Amino acid sequence: MIRLCKGEKKLQLIKEMNYKQNRDSIYKYIIENSNLDQKMEHELYVLQTYLLSLYREALETDINLNDNNLFNREDFELSADDVKRLTILMDFGEADRCLYAAHSTESILPISPTERVSIASIVSGKSFSSSYRSSGRSNMDQEFQCGTISYLTLEALRHYQKNFSKTFHQSQVEEKVYEPGIFVTSERIMKMVAKLLHIGVDSPDPKSTMYQPIVFNCSSKAPFLLELFSRSMWLLSRTRREMKVSTITDYPKVMQVLEKQLQMVLSRRPKDFERLTAYMTEITFEEVLAKWQEEKDQEFVDLQNNNASIIELKESLSKENEQYVIHQRINVLKVGQVFPKVTEKKTGKYIFVQLSRNEKELFIFDIKNSKYTEQMSLQDKISIGDITHIATGLNCKHVRL
């Protein structure tokens, strides 16, 4: 029905479908209790795309970072004087808020008390690392300059700061020390998430089945998009450490890995925030490298099997290659090979089998030792023309010797 409507009526239908009771019903009666076929998965993806399109205007509305009418950039961005020293960075493990109504208190990344470490110090002080001074904002590449962010990014930052304040402070420190800054990174991650979820597209992908169950299973106070953004900011911190990078030149590589991590996480379709976080924990940098290698290998196989030029070349050379293989195997037979002698009682004897030069007979010699073939006595000759059957695989008695 939404597909057929336009304008205000379409928007009103989308808003009605976004009511929590409607999303709950879809989750309970369709997603949770059904083995969905591909057609239904596509329909859920289409509905999800329409629901998330409610964020499009906020995504496309830019805010000047120096406009104090909506926010003060100092609320999110640390100055050089705010960072005194960097201690051990905290793993994203302490949730600072209680999820609402349908959600129990959730730890973003559960860890035992003995595993907890301190957050980077954020205290007033004049001293600041020399590494930051030498790589300050004035020396940053033009690509990483940021004068605006989207309104959606601002809302995501507010959500992150309000609900996960300790991890938010970690992101503040990392972005100040490693660059390019909290606003540049948050804007890039929001655009990355929007791209993966197809927010802002004119129409849903006609073939996609990439729906996310949590879209239909979250409260309005803990929306999927903002929760995913918060976790993505933490995942960036962890990925940086796994890749052991700390300079602005490595930033594009880290963001490329992060996008692949999010893609792999979303492909698993987590059904709640706890599983979403667990999947993020599992998809490490090493997992991404393994996935890329797997895709590269599969791409090579597909190229071999589907590329028209390669198929034509294989067909033109197949007969010639077949003849090469036959000649090579015949030459091996002419050299000869040692085999265990098959008898009713295993006596440890051996035979040496060799193809005649005219390729018409097989010579079978008795030998005393498998390593020495100097002393051989001809036992039998078998005409190739008399052979009617060949035992292969498990049917061959030599397999069991």
Automatic annotation (TrEMBL):
Domain PH: 326-400
A Pfam family per the record: PH_12
InterPro entries, per the entry: PH-like_dom_sf, PH_domain
Name under which the protein is recorded: PH domain-containing protein
